[in-house]
């Protein structure tokens, strides 16, 4: 029995280590994912808007086509300009020259330059000018000129420190995950998160399978009273493993984002996707750490209370139970040991934490759904879809399992030590 349970405990320890490691990795990857997709680096980023506008300008110039009506209106404008230039030239020639050279120049112009013929060629000139401007090669040159201005703006020395910091952040992320673009980064992180999520739940249920095996063994050996003490001590070790993972693994994850924002700009669609508004993932230990590091005394007090009643009391109860069963009578009958072993359950708030996290999840989920639903817009020129991805994590399942398993062990303890239970 000891050998079999030791192997089972080793398996549970391996599964719990994997779950803890995967939980930490998921939190890190999701933090990076939420950082690069934060609304500050997307919808509210000057750099991002510059890229969007530059792309629109590039496409608009290259693919711009004049309609027949526009060509006619433009030709009329060009003709009017050319006629005005000719009239101005005629007025200058008509002026009475003051010098001999001026008189000779005026005579030459009147003799060789026929303004009527030039005026007759104006429509043809205007048509050629428009055709030249509408030529694809000229459009490419104009597009390159426009894009050159954007590039010059992007690399100017006056670019503020915020944009430089943003570029440095993305470069670090690209190097960290060995990618070259934001699209590649999101695709890679999304794939990794999906694999981690699947593996986390697999290890979580394997841990619960180990606990069910222990409880099944209790049922099988319920009449073998000589084995109950040893079996209970080994059962406590399984509880410690559950508690360690339940406290350190993420329990709840809050993720609010704008899934899609699509609108028309200069006749083209501009889209922003997965713009993270808020992301946070915490374990019980993480919540305690945040609270005790706050400057406010009330936050510190709440953190200390959670630490005492939801962490220290369960640990003391499990430890005292083991000491009571293993130690000599004098230590086993110690009032403090017996108190923590048999009567401290009413002071332990692990079950309260379970209910509190669940109620927080339900309330927060409903509130976020309601608030984000107010942002949703579906129209011809503007579409905005906000999503709430808040979810409970496997750490919550493990902590619930610890609470239920602890209640079952307390019942078993009273059953195998009926005299002490009173």
From TrEMBL:
<feature type="transmembrane region" description="Helical">
    <location>
        <begin position="396"/>
        <end position="416"/>
    </location>
</feature>
<dbReference type="Pfam" id="PF04403">
    <property type="entry name" value="PqiA"/>
</dbReference>
<dbReference type="InterPro" id="IPR007498">
    <property type="entry name" value="PqiA-like"/>
</dbReference>
<feature type="transmembrane region" description="Helical">
    <location>
        <begin position="347"/>
        <end position="368"/>
    </location>
</feature>
<keyword id="KW-0472">Membrane</keyword>
<feature type="transmembrane region" description="Helical">
    <location>
        <begin position="200"/>
        <end position="219"/>
    </location>
</feature>
<protein>
    <submittedName>
        <fullName>Paraquat-inducible protein A</fullName>
    </submittedName>
</protein>
<feature type="transmembrane region" description="Helical">
    <location>
        <begin position="300"/>
        <end position="326"/>
    </location>
</feature>
<keyword id="KW-1133">Transmembrane helix</keyword>
<keyword id="KW-0812">Transmembrane</keyword>
<feature type="transmembrane region" description="Helical">
    <location>
        <begin position="231"/>
        <end position="252"/>
    </location>
</feature>
